[in-house]
């Protein structure tokens, strides 16, 4: 087919309001501009909210165990309570998002290694009771050994809870998620560490938050670096992380993470109000990151450009290599 | 079943797809060959599918997209006829202007490596003995994971119902030895039903025939068992690039990369755990040395 012919054909181009073109528009064909993929039908507060709460819970359990082992009982207790609340909220959000909530238990009909949602359901079945036991036994001051075992169990499973959600998103045809499968778990792990550290700064006495302050900086750095690598790898698909609603959220997340981490490092050790403010900024940054990733994925599925152009380039490269 | 060990079942060619799913005496794998070069856009397939499967109304909307107000496959549209008007001559020797009108009946591809089936957490989506992919409606809990997993944008959730729906390749008719309703209704044999192996041979012969007639654009889509989804159970003969028909040019089953995804997530989880251990080790016990 000659280039002018290609130009004449229906062009899949829908410019959204207020959106700036960052690179010249890619040339591609589509069926009346209609999406090739179906975007996720998940509700953002439920699923992006779950990504955030799951990270907060999972990383919180790790910090709780560390705090308990190193003589920081108030921080440990606060983080155990927040992990229980976060995983409880996650479970409610996940069930609420189902088309048939009354059939939520069908998630446990099978254990299916090819389905991250199946493995995730079983992971939550193990993690939830551990996190719950850790919190309840600590608050009730009952069975300290059982409480310690639950705390340890939650700390071992917590990192999996915090990072598997990246696989949940990446194991789809959504270009902005699947194409990011190498970096997304690190974005999520860093974001989770920052969120849990933020929760510690918000709820624990400053004398016990030394490790949380360091973890806040480390988490923010990991998230920022992984996010940049991810966008570099995505090429033209990275547009969806830079423009529109996702772009705003991604930028807000960066600003809040830098502010929160700086506050945690410089001020939070001395001033309770500064600690609380830094903690809140870190929590908000993590939430913005997750909602940004969510909306970026939806947009990349809704615009045929992000499906057709990378696949066409792949095909052309293969044809070029063969000839 | 022992033969499953050590094989990559997530991608690549897989000749015995039903046997690998556990059927001891599986019948031949069946599918559709949709030859769009003889489609006349009558939409008999859309109607037959709706009637046989009692698929609800899918919206009555004027689109201005040639003769297509159906728009695309979805929970309530299991066959969709695309209409593409092109400003170019029809036939092989016409000079000057003209209108080429492409029509093509789209359907679920019943992939060899079906992402919808792979990611379904309840086991609601399953592989039938015929090698097709079907939703068990009494199991589906409407988690919606299959929807963004499908590289073709086929399966979707019914809002009022909550569950997901798509083409069953008329599983009920297959069980009774009948061909699917759309193929039965197609007046030009654009939709051909049969054993997949036989359809692939027939399709290759048809492409050769069209090339001999000078129709150089004729090409098969989804017929190659080595493609990104291991070949489609429902494949097509197209007269232009796939994306012109709303099809992805190089679809890949997302679970092909799942082992690598888990490795990266595992590394990220260990980074989180190891990082926390390092941070607490550096800070030491509270009240102790810092």
Description of the structure:
Chain A: Belongs to the NrfD family. Chain A has 323 residues and is mainly alpha-helical. Chain A has helices spanning 3-8, 44-69, 73-97, 116-140, 144-170, 175-178, 184-203, 210-234, 239-242, 244-266, 272-302, 304-322. In chain A, α7 (184-203) runs antiparallel to α11 (272-302). Mean pLDDT of chain A is 93; it is low at 1-18. With 290 residues, chain B is of the alpha+beta class. Chains A and B meet through α2, α4, α5, α7 and α8 of A and β2, α3, α4, β6 and α8 of B.
Topology:
The complex is a heterodimer of chains A (323) and B (290).
Chain A: H1 3-8, H2 44-69, H3 73-97, H4 116-140, H5 144-170, H6 175-178, H7 184-203, H8 210-234, H9 239-242, H10 244-266, H11 272-302, H12 304-322
Helix pairs in contact in A: 2-3, 2-5, 2-7, 2-11, 3-4, 3-7, 4-5, 5-7, 7-8, 7-11, 8-10, 10-11
Chain B: H1 17-20, E1 30-35, H2 44-53, E2 79-86, E3 100-107, H3 115-119, E4 125-127, E5 133-135, H4 146-149, E6 156-157, E7 164-165, H5 171-175, H6 181-185, E8 191-195, H7 196-212, E9 219-221, E10 234-238, H8 258-283
């Amino acid at each position: 087919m000659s280039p002018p012919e290609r130009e004449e054909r229906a062009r899949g181009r829908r410019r959204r309001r207020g959106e700036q073109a960052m690179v010249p528009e890619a040339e591609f064909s589509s069926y009346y501009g209609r999406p090739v993929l179906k975007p996720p039908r998940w509700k953002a507060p439920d699923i992006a909210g779950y990504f955030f709460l799951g990270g907060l819970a999972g990383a919180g359990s790790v910090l709780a165990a560390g705090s308990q082992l190193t003589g920081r009982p108030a921080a440990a207790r606060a983080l155990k309570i927040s992990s229980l609340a976060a995983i409880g909220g996650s479970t409610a959000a996940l069930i609420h998002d189902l088309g048939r909530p009354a059939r939520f238990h069908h998630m446990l009909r099978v254990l299916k290694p090819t389905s991250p949602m199946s493995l995730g359901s079983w992971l939550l079945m193990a993690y939830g009771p551990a996190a719950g036991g850790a919190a309840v036994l600590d608050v009730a001051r009952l069975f300290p050994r059982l409480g310690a075992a639950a705390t340890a169990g939650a700390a071992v499973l917590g990192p999996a809870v915090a990072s598997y959600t990246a696989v949940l998103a990446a194991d789809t045809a959504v270009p902005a998620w699947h194409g990011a499968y190498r970096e997304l778990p690190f974005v999520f792990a860093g974001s989770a560490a920052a969120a849990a550290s933020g929760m510690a700064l918000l709820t624990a006495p400053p004398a016990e938050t030394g490790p949380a302050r360091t973890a806040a900086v480390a988490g923010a750095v990991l998230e920022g670096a992984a996010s940049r690598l991810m966008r570099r790898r995505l090429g033209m698909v990275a547009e969806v992380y830079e423009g529109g609603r996702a772009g705003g959220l991604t930028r807000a997340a960066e600003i809040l993470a830098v502010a929160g981490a700086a506050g945690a490092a410089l001020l939070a050790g001395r001033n309770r109000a500064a600690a609380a403010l830094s903690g809140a900024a870190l929590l908000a940054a993590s939430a913005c990151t997750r909602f940004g990733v969510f909306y970026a994925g939806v947009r990349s599925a809704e615009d045929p450009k992000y499906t057709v152009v990378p696949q066409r380039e792949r095909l052309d490269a293969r044809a070029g290599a063969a000839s | 079943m022992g033969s499953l060990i050590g094989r990559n079942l997530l991608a690549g060619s897989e000749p015995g797809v039903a046997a690998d799913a556990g059927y001891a005496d599986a019948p031949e794998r069946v599918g559709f060959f949709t030859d769009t070069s003889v489609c006349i856009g009558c939409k008999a397939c859309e109607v037959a599918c709706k009637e046989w499967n009692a698929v609800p109304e899918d919206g009555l909307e004027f689109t201005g997209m040639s003769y297509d107000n159906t728009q695309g496959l979805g929970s309530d549209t299991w066959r969709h006829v695309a209409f593409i008007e092109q400003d170019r001559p029809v036939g092989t020797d016409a000079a000057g202007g003209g209108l080429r009108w492409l029509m093509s009946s789209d359907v679920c591809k019943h992939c060899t490596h079906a992402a919808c089936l792979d990611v379904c957490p309840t086991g609601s989506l399953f592989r039938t003995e015929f090698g097709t992919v079907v939703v068990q409606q009494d199991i589906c809990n409407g988690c919606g994971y299959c929807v963004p997993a499908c590289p073709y944008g086929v399966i979707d959730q019914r809002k009022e119902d909550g569950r997901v729906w798509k083409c069953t390749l008329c599983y009920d008719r297959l069980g009774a030895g009948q061909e699917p309703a759309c193929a039965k209704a197609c007046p030009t044999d654009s939709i051909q039903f049969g054993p997949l192996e036989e359809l692939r041979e027939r399709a290759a012969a048809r492409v050769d025939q069209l090339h001999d007639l000078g129709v150089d654009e004729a090409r098969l889509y989804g017929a190659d068992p080595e493609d990104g989804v291991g070949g489609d159970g429902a494949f097509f003969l197209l007269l232009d690039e796939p994306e012109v028909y709303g099809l992805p040019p190089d679809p890949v089953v997302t679970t092909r990369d799942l082992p690598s995804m888990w490795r990266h997530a595992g590394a990220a989880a260990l980074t989180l755990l190891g990082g926390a251990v390092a941070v607490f080790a550096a800070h030491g016990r509270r009240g102790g040395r810092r």
